[in-house]
Specification:
Structural class: alpha/beta
Strand content: 5-15%
CATH superfamily of the largest domain: HUPs
Distance between the termini: 58 Å
Helix content: 40-55%
Largest sheet: 6 strands, mixed
CATH architecture of the largest domain: 3-Layer(aba) Sandwich
CATH class of the largest domain: Alpha Beta
Number of strands: 15
Number of helices: 20
Shape: elongated
Length: about 425
Amino acid sequence: MNFVEELRWRGMLHDIMPGTEELLNKGMASGYIGFDPTADSLHVGHLTQIMTLIHFQRAGHKPYALVGGATGMVGDPSGKSAERNLLSEDVLQHNLNCVREQLKNFLDFNSGANSAEMVNNYDWFKNFTFLDFIRDVGKHITVNYMMAKDSVKKRLEGDTGMSFTEFTYQLVQGYDFYYLWKHKSCVLQMGGSDQWGNIVTGTEMIRRKEGGEAFALTTQLIKKADGTKFGKTESGAVWLDPARTSPYQFYQFWLNTTDADAKSYIRIFTLFDRHTIEAMEAEHDAAPHLRVLQKALAKDITIRVHGEAEFLKAIKSSEFLFGNAGIEFLNELNDGEVLDLFNGVPNFSVAKSEFKAGINATELLAGKSAVFPSKGEAKKMIQGGGVSVNRVKVNTPEDVYTSAQLINGKFLVVQKGKKNYFLIVAE
RNA sequence: GGGGAGAUACCAGAGCGGUCAAAUGGGACGGACUGUAAAUCCGUUGCUUCGGCUACGAAGGUUCGAAUCCUUCUCUCCCCA
């Protein structure tokens, strides 16, 4: 199966320039996707692009992952309704290094002719002067053409306006494509559907500047079945960096996928072939409560992002927290084992003396720890019946906790709602 | 440059001198149901030492009392030139 067919049956393909498929069928080609270093970690939203590059490489082509050291300094207006704040150079540099390290985990950089490569557009922009740029690049693209782009049009129609800097963005990205086409024989740029305009500016620039031919392909924007944004949880974005989103939380995020979404995600975020996926779906439809799809999905992605060992830990924690094992089970573990089990669960330490004296629920959960941001909120949630300590519902905000309740003389397991666990450690 | 409209909680949007911590809808969170699903129903949605405190673009003022009236400022939108 070729690359485009692969994306097609997986439901990832959004738009493709005529001739792209024919070109790829002729043999190994080079293509790239750009990643903007807007934060020091990628998040699950970037996984679609990562998977696209993986498929590209598996189909025998040569993938380039571009990190936008230069474009990141400008700010992509696509999909943004307001002007973006510029990042300072050192923050950008830091982000860039982090993102680059993450990307390294997903592609094969040592597979002969089609080894993946990493490039940074800052390398070819740092010595490019403004005058050279407007003469060599700007001259080939009309302002009329640039203004016709959706990303620009929306901002011109809107009320926030757009700076010259952001307006220029598409030229900068377009030049990336030209540069890679010229120097790396890169004939295809891929990206999310919001990147179509920017990518086409690149192919246009290649044509007008050198009469060359280059292609574009975009992937579907991932949305949940209910139309809300993908990749967000109560506590914000789901990051690939374990310091920001623990492997346990990461695993839980995927495990909690709804049935409707699981069927599309399993195609997009895993490499299982069509037969395997269809078989899993049949199994899932026959016994949906077993959540075959969610488990396979969560396992596959967690392993790809965090590795087998972290996945096993996440499973172990999940099985304990959501399984049948009573809280007494913890008594059989030593401190290290308990901490290990709760690895990835937010934890707070509270002085042991507080428990000797006895501490009431609100003070414990909102004062001495940060399970809740304020005492008012802790109270409300307790009164609404949404808080448990050691699997026992907290009845009133005045419930008192003493050393007697500490598991192993040290731990308290707090639940906010059904799914959010916290560990309080008395020290 | 001239004229007009507006700025309210996460968002949209009512309120136009006291009974307003502020209608309503959405979102978010919690509860019930369930499969750690969806749908549905219900509740919560400024902080608090529970005395109060801080809030309706910002700063002043009038008043016993202001989100509501006045002045200045900042920003946004619309029309004319």
